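Example record

One chain of 492 residues, shown exactly as stored in the release files.
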Amino acid sequence: MPAQRRIIVIWLPRLQSELALRRLGLDAPFAMIERQRGAERLVCLNAQAEGLGLSRGMGLADARAICPDLLTRPADPHRTAQTLESLRRWALRYCPWAACDGADGLALDITGAAHLMGGEAALRDDLLARLARMGFTARAGLADTRGAAWAMAHVAGGGIIAPGSTRAALGPLPLAALRLDAKMLAALERLGLRRVRDLAQMPRAPLARRFGATLLQRLDQAMGDLPEPVAPPPAPPVMAVRLSLPDPIGLLGDLQAALTRLLERLCQHLHRAEMGARRLVLDLSRVDGQAVRLEIRLARPMRDAGDIAPLFDRALDGVDAGFGIDAMRLCAPDTSPLPLQQVTTGGAQAQDDLADLISRLGNRLGFDHVQRLLPADSHIPEKAFTVAAAAYSDPAPDWPPARTQRPLVMFPPEPIAGSGRALPRRFKWRGQTWQVVAASGPERLTPEWWLDDPNWRSGMRDYWRVQTDRGARLWLFHTPQRDGWCVQGEFA
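Predicted structure tokens for this chain:
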């Protein structure tokens, strides 16, 4: 007869705030904030903030009114998810099955494993003690089902439900123990249903018609009538190949030939998985026990061995093979989906050629130094674009049409010597005298009041396009609040 399934759920109610405080080292009321429903709201607090009456979901303005000294940081869901995944792998020391439970919890299937730690209570206490030493506040619930263990951890404050006692233990708990949303809980309370036992005694058909299948599903999962296994996330496929050499090699041509064989095998694996490599790592094992690691990054997902191999040439040329290399391992730790596509005569080839150029330059200069311009929503000329790393951004499909003509070359404003409020007909700039032949304008630009830009603190500007006797077309502006003119650009 199979053993009675036992599940433990760990709740980390202050995971985000404790992660941030480990780096900041603060000892004050602290909260993580996130923009929700059009306002900044508290999503995770430390114990000091909760002790002052603050709670999750409270608006930041209300929280500041209660606690003016509240320190805040923006929420970082990505870092929190990474930490939770690390804790999930760490929890495998207690059992073979562990999964993340929401954004701040873990679920462990300890069936048949508790006796290795001296019993269920000893296992739970050891787990909580280790988390406490890591600096995490945690609550644990242990029961026959995942839903009941969740209820004990989140609602009952922690505890162990003896095998076969799930229904009796869950009955007195509020309906929030069934993992229902706030809207459904409010509707059930209006019907007078406040405890799990009240819901369990109701006819099921009317409940299903009024509240849908979710309500009964959560009830059945908690009671054990519907299975809810602890399923860890599927492990990603390991994209790596290895080559053991019968005799050590060290010549550049031999290294390139061996690399080509590795690339062909790796690209076959990538093709079957419909994936493309974004980063490749080549490990070379020397006969003297030393190791050499080469790494390249790609601006687009790739799985063509012929296109990838030349990117390693520069790195292989500088390899110190010592007394020879007898083993090589090539892996693709970073991959992206690359499904099969219809071959067309459009601009796909041009985009791939550009991405290959970015890959070559990026591996030589650093990918952060290969940049592209992207449009930005601003009428201020020098703010009408942003600079982004070309490898980590997509080109703009279409730049918005220019409101008016803009100069080809722009530079910081350079004052004109001897000019007043009126448009000068003759002025000195960069050590030369310029005569204005024709002018068009003004175009008035006002600084964005919601941004504090030191270059625009002087206020609005009136811009003119002027044609000079030397053939240059310059972009001049005058600030009405001050005397004097400046040159900021030159047209083609």
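Notes: The chain has three domains: 1-235, 240-337, 409-490.
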